[in-house]
Design goal:
The protein is of the alpha+beta class. Helices cover about 55% and strands about 10% of the residues. The chain has helices at about 25-40, 45-50, 60-65, 80-90, 95-100, 105-120, 120-130, 140-160, and strands at about 15-20, 45, 65-70, 75. Strands 2-1-3-4 form a four-stranded mixed beta sheet. Helix 1 crosses helix 7 (about 120-130). It is elongated and about 65 Å long. The N and C termini lie far apart (about 45 Å).
Length: about 160
């Protein structure tokens, strides 16, 4: 399981900084989507570039999970980092609040995050099928699959 970190003594200057694995296709795909959502409110950089900037954070911690580092030094990790981006944007802000305050919700999300991290390549292939290859372009493949699944389910129920 990835480790939660509290603070760094070397925070970014003006804006929160999202640090991710630049060699991970899944990570890069979702960073593009986050950039589109957050605009200029958050800086994004790969840990391969940023690690030297944060001598008090071990490389292994950057490899474990995405880290959102705030200008006051606070670090949000994994799902908390993702949910904080929604909180900043005021888009489903309750997810961050729930993650912070509801233990079972935090544990479930940490487990799911770790499972996705452990299965990045397969999950990335699934994302491509559902959302399309281009993260900048809205794709509704997931709706086609959901409709097909619902039709098959209805046929099974009807005929049995």
């Amino acid at each position: 399981m990835f480790q939660h970190l509290d603070k760094t003594s070397v925070p970014p200057d003006n804006k929160p900084l999202m640090v991710y694995d630049g060699k991970c296709d899944f990570c890069r795909y979702w960073i593009v989507k986050w950039k589109m959502m957050t605009g200029n409110n958050i800086e994004y950089t790969a840990f391969q570039k940023a690690a030297k900037q944060f001598p008090d954070i071990e490389i292994q911690h950057f490899k474990e999970a995405v880290r959102l580092i705030l200008p006051d030094g606070t670090i949000y990790s994994g799902p908390a980092a993702a949910y904080y981006t929604y909180f900043i944007r005021n888009s489903v802000p309750f997810l961050f609040k729930w993650y912070q305050s509801i233990t079972w919700f935090r544990r479930l999300n940490d487990y799911l995050y770790q499972w996705i991290a452990d299965n990045r390549n397969q999950v990335f292939k699934f994302c491509i099928k559902m959302l399309g290859k281009n993260p900048r372009k809205q794709n509704y493949n997931w709706l086609k699959y959901l409709t097909g699944f619902a039709l098959i389910l209805l046929m099974i129920i009807y005929f049995y």
